[in-house]
Amino acid sequence: MRLVILGAGESGIGTAILGKKKGYDVFVSDFGKIKGNYKEVLIINEIAWEEEKHTEDLILNADVVMKSPGIPDKSPIVKKLSAKEIPVLSEIEFAAPFTDATIIGITGSNGKTTTTMLTYHLLKSAGLNVGLGGNIGKSFAWQVADNKYDSYVLELSSFQLDGIFKFKPHIAIITNISPDHLDRYDYKYENYIASKFRITMNQTEEDYLIYDADDEAITEWFKTHTTKAKLIPFSLTKTFSEGAYIKNNKMEISINQEEFTMDTAHIALEGKHNMKNAMAATSVAKLMQIRKSTIRESLSNFQGVEHRLEKVLKIQNVQYINDSKATNVNATFFALDSMNTPTVWIVGGVDKGNDYNELMSLVREKVKAIICLGVDNKKIIDVFGNVVDMMVEVSTMNDAVRMAQRLSEKGDTVLLSPACASFDLFENYEDRGNQFKQAVKNL
């Protein structure tokens, strides 16, 4: 069996290792340059590879192809593979049959990293032998090749779900759905929604789907679609006989005739959206039969996720917050919603078809100045130009932070929450967040 891997990033290299271990004839092809450390791994494992090109003769003879989530279906080589009816899978689809572990799959437009990390923290603190993968950490395929975990918590993007056919998590979570990555879905929101719901398409009556019952797109989907999985909703406003909700400042969860309650004041994460993440993760912990005392302790000591509403420093009584992971409008909505002081907002980057009007009421209420940090800021300026007193354009993170210091005064917050991808000026959102933190430390 010939396995061809397109893209030599974390998921590609992990799949190559697993494929080699399982006796496939493996070939890795990357249209860009392969990072030095990954190249070493390929060489040590005697896996054939090429970079800065896709040689068709070496690719179109594949029995199966694993495509990196970053490569769109529209790319010429993928179209040629489709024309020849060669199956093109995601890493998750390829690796899943090689493990008997219980899989918890988490998707959503926002909150999925926090929910994934919190779920992993809950299970690991309870002493479970658990792996963390998908969109974060070491690739799932690599872990399946090297480790023997009893369960995995996987963060799954819509791109990864587009490449699944038989994959089924025992427990699936959809944190929420809001327009994102529409450039990859022909600018059709319904295509993106359908992609998220692929997480439950193979689930059976023995499996569970945990979802946000306050979410409009999710509720609409359920009006015309079904899943076999047992449904566990969570909500900030509704109550359920089976599900999770907040009532009188208490998180209440009822699953399989078992009750769990916890005062929300004792939960380490702050903000309404984080209550939802906590309800989703705790529902998993209950399904995995983790003791109540362990759950309470883990919820109260969880540290949060880097680049997600991360408090950096307070300088001259101005709080600097790094929310670089907010790569869409919905994520920035949560960030602005949780601001309690006048805010200097750093925004901008590569726009994925954003509608900034959704932020209008929050910007009017909370934002005193906007700093645009992007190559093309026209859309942001058009929408908010008349709404805030100060609007400044900068092209480096250092300039953004220095300008923010000038525009802020005691008691204010400086918030980096870009609502956009980072690829115009930075390598990725981590690089953007790290540059912000460094610039703040240099003030």
From TrEMBL:
SUPFAM superfamilies: MurCD N-terminal domain, MurD-like peptide ligases, catalytic domain, MurD-like peptide ligases, peptide-binding domain. InterPro entries: Mur-like_cat_sf (IPR036565), Mur_ligase_C (IPR004101), Mur_ligase_C_dom_sf (IPR036615), Mur_ligase_cen (IPR013221), MurD (IPR005762). Its main location: cytoplasm. The keyword Glycoprotein does not apply. Keywords: ATP-binding, Cell cycle, Cell division, Cell shape, Cell wall biogenesis/degradation, Cytoplasm, Ligase, Nucleotide-binding, Peptidoglycan synthesis. It is found in: Cytoplasm. This is UDP-N-acetylmuramoylalanine--D-glutamate ligase. The gene is murD.
